[in-house]
Amino acid sequence: MSSRCHRRSFLAAAGCGAGFLLLENSLSVRAYAANARLNVGLIGVTGRAGWFVQTMPQLANVVAMCDVNRHRAGPVFEKFPGPRKFEDFREMLDQMERELDAVTVAIPDHTHAAAALGAIKRRKHVLCEKPLTHDVSEARALREAAAQFKVATQMGNQGTASEAYRQSVELTQAGLLGDIREVYAWKDGGGTGDRPAPAGEFPPPDDLRWDLWLGPAAARPYHPLWMKWHGWRDFATGNLGNWGAHILNLPFRALRLDTLWDADAPAEWRPKEKPVIRIKARMSGIHPLTFPKWELVEFDFPARGPLPPVHVTWANGAGAPGARARVEELMGRKLDWGDAGAKRWDDHGGCLLVGSRGMLHTIAHNTTLTLLPAEKFKDFDLKSIPRALPRSRGHESEWVQACQGGPAALSHFHYAGPLTEFLLLGNVATLFDVPLEYDPLAGRILNHPGADAALRRPRRKGWEL
Q: With contact defined as beta carbons under 8 Å apart, do 65 and 85 qualify?
């Protein structure tokens, strides 16, 4: 049994099942137009932020736009002459505090927390792209602030809105797969490996506010190589943050791993003892500035009520030893990470849940659902699984509805914060050649002071949280 949303339709945001992403003439647009429309500011308008430039005017009044790069943002600013324009999101939040209801945040990872928290403290609703934050402590701070100021939030792992994702959660929690003790997640590519900091000093382009772009990161002279920011730990979170927010979203919710972070979780899902998560990493090398060419990170989660302990393996980069062979053995076919020439959309990243009664495979965005072994589940009817989750009209639509007083969006910060902590713990582990033990309630690494210190980073003056 297989439920699929193909690459072309995914990239076109055409939808899958109940509606993966917003369609211009969908019911959701008409319904929200009938209500009082939100006033939204866009923090970031280029690159990935271009998605919000397209979608938010359909759902809300876009009254402000902010971007530190006038050259790249220029065409967007010209296309939308109405909203006020800013380079510093702090000035936008200050000057438009009375006009703004909400903001989207889609800027480099290292500035997510500063922008999102600045908005939350002014009681503005926030939709923040994945990864939610750059480091573990920031994820916890956003989760706590969202609860304190009672704002509507959503992280931008858009696959959460897909029918396949919600069905996968439901059938897993209904017990179709039996006890799940193994999870495998993978992504091709990997990091750059060891690289020195760029040498020399260049004048920043006239239309780039370099100091604002650096935000909370340590001051340094401009160099064009820093702008390839996805490769540098100072600014990015690697594939674990960037893709893990999609790939590992399914097991984190379906296996109720998020309850380990919640002291007030329902009693039936609480661990019998104080929860400790164990993390062990193997990698091509330890590189303080960059991400390894390959990494194999293993997480051991304790039992959650009646759910058994689970071992989660993250394999990133073609050199990660062992995990790929194990996944291919379980799935009964070869994976193509680009090395077979086909560049299969299905295979560049994915997740496999291994249960005592069956397995579930999904691709990187959790927008497909394949039950294995195929012969066992070939006649299985997904409609036989009761619906336990609401269906989505679109990831952004969910958030707008929550801002207007509707139900909380599914990837709200109370969930997305712990998911992000889990992912970024893997990045910390790749900096230390020892197993780590993490207390998810206290937010501390228990057995290594240096690794515990790496949960938070120094911030430049004026950029404190």
A: yes
